[in-house]
């Protein structure tokens, strides 16, 4: 069985808060520099699969106007778009009835991708769908690109076009460790710790279900990039137990530390649990009204006018499958 302690997830993809800030700043600055030179930021794929910024267009009056209107998206605005679309990842996965592990893997892929790139460089709506597609593959729950595209009325070719970009950006580190399995492991351990009878087993089952919902909330924050899955799982169980009061959680933590050697003290560990809880409490999914003006700025960064975007949507519509009004109503909107 794979071991988190020896994994690339632990070695390469758990960061400090300052490291996250630096990575977001570096990606944003790179895109800003392209705009300052008069270019557009949406990267294209060469025939050999390499990525590049579009060649500067002929200096016509229309192109000059587009460049003058282009305003870079700030780091805070990038975060707003990411938060909005991460919520959409959960929505799409629930719409397809995907297991939690696919939802978690897709979210972590998306988060990791935008540690390396700015949303000005790769359309996050396209990357979102490709991350879900890649997660389905790696978690052995394969869904075709065509089926995924149909389900949300998007051109499936876009998913295939971005697949290799995702893998390269993730450095082919495709195995991720989500907290859901750790929650299950801790519940089994709690059964032994409490010497659980039938009534307590039922209470622990309730504790587990509530903890899964807590993990769902955590996955929308920076927590998966800052903490290992075991700590996330315990934080979820800690919050769940505060609600249901199933066991002496402080005593359970003491029991864990008495059985295992750890680089951290119990008090340091509780500080981590509180930090995770703070991330959850401070999380807010931005409403669509906040993302609309940012999307307009993105279009200008990509060199698109409202006319260009209209033509783009018209072209996409030709690829959409005919659906019943009920299906169309249920399809998640990424706008």
What is the count of DSSP helices, taking H or I runs of 4+ residues?
17
Distance between the termini: 40 Å
Choose one word for the global shape.
elongated
- What percent of the residues sit in helical stretches (DSSP H or I)? 55-70%
Mean pLDDT figure: 87
Pfam families: Cyclin_C_2, Cyclin_N
Biased composition (Basic residues): 313-323
Domain Cyclin-like: 87-168
Region (Disordered): 305-335
Explain how this protein is built.
This protein is mainly alpha-helical and 335 residues long. The chain is 67% helix and 1% strand. The chain contains 17 helices and 2 strands. Strands 1-2 form a two-stranded antiparallel sheet. The radius of gyration is 22 Å and the shape is elongated. The two termini are 40 Å apart. Residues 87-168 form the Cyclin-like domain. Residues 313-323 have a biased composition (Basic residues). It comes from Crotalaria pallida.
């Amino acid at each position: 069985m794979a071991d988190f302690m020896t994994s690339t997830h632990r070695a390469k993809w758990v960061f400090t808060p300052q490291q996250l800030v630096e990575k977001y700043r570096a990606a944003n600055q790179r895109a800003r520099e392209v705009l300052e030179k008069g270019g557009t930021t949406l990267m294209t794929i060469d025939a050999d699969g390499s990525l590049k910024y579009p060649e500067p267009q002929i200096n016509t009056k229309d192109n000059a106007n587009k460049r003058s209107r282009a305003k870079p998206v700030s780091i805070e605005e990038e975060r707003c778009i990411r938060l909005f679309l991460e919520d959409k990842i959960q929505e799409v996965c629930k719409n397809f009835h995907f297991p939690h592990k696919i939802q978690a893997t897709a979210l972590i892929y998306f988060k990791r991708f935008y540690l390396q790139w700015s949303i000005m460089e790769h359309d996050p709506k396209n990357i979102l769908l490709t991350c879900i597609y890649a997660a389905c593959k790696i978690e052995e729950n394969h869904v075709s690109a065509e089926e995924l595209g149909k389900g949300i009325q998007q051109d499936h070719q876009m998913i295939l076009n971005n697949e290799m970009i995702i893998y390269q950006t993730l450095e082919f580190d495709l195995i991720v460790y989500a907290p859901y399995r750790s929650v299950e492991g801790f519940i089994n351990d709690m059964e032994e710790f409490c010497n659980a009878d039938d009534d307590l087993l039922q209470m622990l089952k309730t504790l587990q279900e509530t903890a899964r919902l807590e993990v769902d909330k955590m996955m929308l924050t920076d927590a998966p990039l800052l903490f290992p899955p075991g700590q996330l799982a315990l934080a979820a169980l800690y919050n769940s137990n505060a609600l249901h009061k199933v066991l002496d959680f402080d005593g359970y933590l003491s029991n864990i530390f008495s059985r295992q050697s750890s680089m951290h003290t119990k008090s340091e560990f509780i500080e981590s649990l509180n930090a995770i809880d703070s991330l959850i409490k401070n999380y807010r999914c931005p409403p669509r009204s906040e993302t609309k003006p940012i999307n307009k700025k993105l279009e200008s960064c990509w060199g698109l006018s409202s006319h260009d975007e209209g033509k783009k949507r018209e072209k996409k519509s030709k690829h959409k499958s005919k659906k019943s009004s009920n299906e169309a109503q249920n399809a998640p909107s990424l706008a």
